[in-house]
């Protein structure tokens, strides 16, 4: 059952969304979360892909519910700021599966969830009515667990996976936005959409605030804010960048025997201080 500290963090997360655009970096383990907090983040999102890779699995519900919840628990324990958890498709197709996952996430200390409408990686999607039932189950479970303030970010993969004819995708997303809002979602996450004119059109017509996934090649945050976007996250991108450094540093060591790639590393004392509190 959520306590007052957790409820206060949930209210903080809601306030951050209400103030304007929220930059939400994605962590995949306790150390990445602690460094993101040290960088000045006001809240943290987890990334299912980064979490899965860190334990040797592929993304797309490659971990069990219990395994993912344990990683969420470690991330929450590493920081004092609000954490919202990527729970993928809810670790099961039924509303009861989503409810069980939400209850476990709250018990682990998170104050938000990201719930997608894909049945499996790449699609197909739940139809809007089915997904609305799953979102409603999440909302009901949160209230039962003592955290009615849980922030539910409803993800739709229409653009990410190119579902349906291109000319019909915006209408599909808007229909889903209405259904998801009615079920108790707090925002709509539309990965795969980075075209500012389409984003602005969606913002103007959606009953839910819009969250986009950015990264290299995407418009900068200021431009997304001007289009009315309320939340920007980066998915697996920070994890991918960190792993790229690991590969480059190992390649350099094994080929030239030099250490240039290690020059920008966080020093040992700083890393240790993140956990010696």
What does this structure look like?
The chain has 277 residues and is α/β, with parallel strands linked by helices. It has one domain: Phosphoenolpyruvate-binding domains (TIM Barrel, Alpha-Beta Barrel), CATH 3.20.20. It has 11 helices and 9 strands. Strands 1-9-8-7-6-5-4-3-2 form a 9-stranded parallel sheet, with helices on both faces. The two termini are 26 Å apart. The model has no long low-confidence stretch (mean pLDDT 96).
How would you summarize this macromolecular structure in one to three sentences?
The chain is α/β, with parallel strands linked by helices. It has helices at 4-19, 30-38, 48-54, 65-78, 95-107, 128-144, 169-183, 196-205, 221-226, 237-255, 268-273, and strands at 22-24, 26-27, 44-46, 83-86, 112-116, 151-155, 187-189, 210-213, 231-233. Helix content is 48%, strand content 12%.
Based on Cα principal axes, name the global outline: globular
H/E topology pattern: HEEHEHHEHEHEHEHEHEHH
Instruction: Give the CATH topology.
Output: TIM Barrel
Tell me the helix content: 40-55%
Number of helices: 11
User: What oligomeric arrangement do these chains adopt?
Assistant: single chain
Based on the structure given, which CATH architecture is correct? Alpha-Beta Barrel
CATH homologous superfamily title: Phosphoenolpyruvate-binding domains
Into how many domains do the coordinates divide? 1
Strand order of the largest sheet: 1-9-8-7-6-5-4-3-2
Instruction: Please tell me the overall pLDDT.
Output: 96
Task: Name the beta content range.
Answer: 5-15%
Count every beta strand, where a strand is a DSSP E run of 2 or more residues. 9
Class computed from helices, strands and strand pairing: alpha/beta
Q: Mind summarizing the main beta sheet?
A: 9 strands, parallel
Q: Which segments are poorly predicted (pLDDT under 50) over 5 or more consecutive residues?
A: none
């Amino acid at each position: 059952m959520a306590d007052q500290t957790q409820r206060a963090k949930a209210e903080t997360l809601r306030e951050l969304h209400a103030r304007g655009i929220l930059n939400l970096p994605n962590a995949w383990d306790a150390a990445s979360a602690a460094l993101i907090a040290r960088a000045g983040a006001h809240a943290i999102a987890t990334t299912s892909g980064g979490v899965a890779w860190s334990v040797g699995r592929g993304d797309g519900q490659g971990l069990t519910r219990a395994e993912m919840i344990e990683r969420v628990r470690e991330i929450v324990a590493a920081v004092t700021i609000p954490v919202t958890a990527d729970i993928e498709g809810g670790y099961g197709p039924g509303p009861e599966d989503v409810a069980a996952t939400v209850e476990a996430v709250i018990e682990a200390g998170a104050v938000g969830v990201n719930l997608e409408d894909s049945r499996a990686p790449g699609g197909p999607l739940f139809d809007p009515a089915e997904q609305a039932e799953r979102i409603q189950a999440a909302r009901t479970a949160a209230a039962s667990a003592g955290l009615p303030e849980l922030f539910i970010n409803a993800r739709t993969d229409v653009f990410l996976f190119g579902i349906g004819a291109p000319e019909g995708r915006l209408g599909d997303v808007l229909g889903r936005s209405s259904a998801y809002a009615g079920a108790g979602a707090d925002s709509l996450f539309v990965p795969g959409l980075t075209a500012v004119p389409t984003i602005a059109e969606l913002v103007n017509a959606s009953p839910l605030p819009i969250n986009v996934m950015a990264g290299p090649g995407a418009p900068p945050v200021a431009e997304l804010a001007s289009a009315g976007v309320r939340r920007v996250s980066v998915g697996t991108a920070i994890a991918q960048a960190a792993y790229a450094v690991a590969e480059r540093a190992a390649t350099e060591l094994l080929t030239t025997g030099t250490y240039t790639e290690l020059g920008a590393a966080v020093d040992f004392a700083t890393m240790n201080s993140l956990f010696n509190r």
